[in-house]
Amino acid sequence: MADPPAQVAPADDAITITLNHQGTTHTLSFPSDATITDLSTAVEVALSIPSSNQKFLAPKLGLLKPPFKDPSLPLGSLDASKPIKLMGTTATELASLASASQAVSAREAAYAAQRRAQPKAFTSRRSATAAQEDSTYTFMAIRPLPNLPAPERSRAFLERLARDPGIVAAMRKHQFSVGLLTEMDPLSYTESSHEGTTRILGLNRNRGEVVELRLRTDAYDGYRDYKTIRNTLCHELAHNVHSDHDRQFWDLCHQIEREVARADWKSGGHRVGEDDFYEPELSEEVAYDHGGWTGGEFVLGGGGGSGGSTTTASAGTGSLSRREIMAKAAEERMKKLDEERRRQSGQGGGST
């Protein structure tokens, strides 16, 4: 058996960085004055992972992702003796996921048409109506992001939400139908500034075509509180009717939350009063969303679509609750950050 070819040793003043991506180790060499931005560029060229999808977990420094707080951070400041964990989806994987998503949707549509064409067996009127409602007012497809760790755990989380008695009852009562229930990549819809970090918890595209929920923590190592995510789902279901965060939206949102909480109470949960609903104490600033999204294209695992538009509530805060005011403040902050990013991009001074 022939010996493997010898590897060319890097120059004495070169910096060698070892990356671990999806179980595979990659070694990259850089000049001594290279920066973290050079590392991001090299990953995009060598591994075909766009910078917007990159996330580095570096020893001692923690989480780093473009756009970096310090783009000129020297690579020499990283601990080169330990591998850096790289998380991100390649352009080829994104294209494959989009193709797979379209194929699944086509099969589901064909199966639904076949079932409608089949002769119906005799059933009572009540059972037939219930079966029709169950197949109509539900989530037509449930899929996690396969490129993230342990997708089976995310699928179980999403299926638990879909089977939640309160969610099932609310969808039948309000005649809600959702084409695809999926998870949101923690890389998406997160904005940082000197004031802190704001995270979008959910998204409803085209009034129920796709609902995305932020299930995971930022480092992909855990999942958020179930009731927090369920409340986010109630919020997104209300966007099936109202796009803007106006008084009508919030009334419907709170109505759905109370209905879901009431069903949870009947199954063994606890409620304090008729008008109480779950309000978690979070250590981070969150915005449920920017409002109902319309247009654009959804790509499974792609971090959102292009060409979409968002709407936010234009009403004043006089009739809003403390919770609604906090959500509106976070949404306005996200909106300002988006506008500033677009302004800088138009001047050639930033990335989008």
UniProtKB/TrEMBL annotation:
Entry GO MF terms: proteasome binding
Domain of life: Eukaryota
Compositionally biased tracts (Gly residues): 299-308
Record field: compositional bias (Low complexity): 309-320
Entries under CDD domains matching the protein: Ubl_ubiquitin_like (cd17039)
Region (Disordered): 299-352
InterPro entries tied to this protein: Ubiquitin-like_domsf, WLM_dom
Ranges of compositional bias, category Basic and acidic residues: 321-343
Domain (WLM) ranges: 130-335
PROSITE patterns for the chain: WLM
Descriptive protein name: WLM domain-containing protein
Classification lineage: Eukaryota, Fungi, Dikarya, Ascomycota, Pezizomycotina
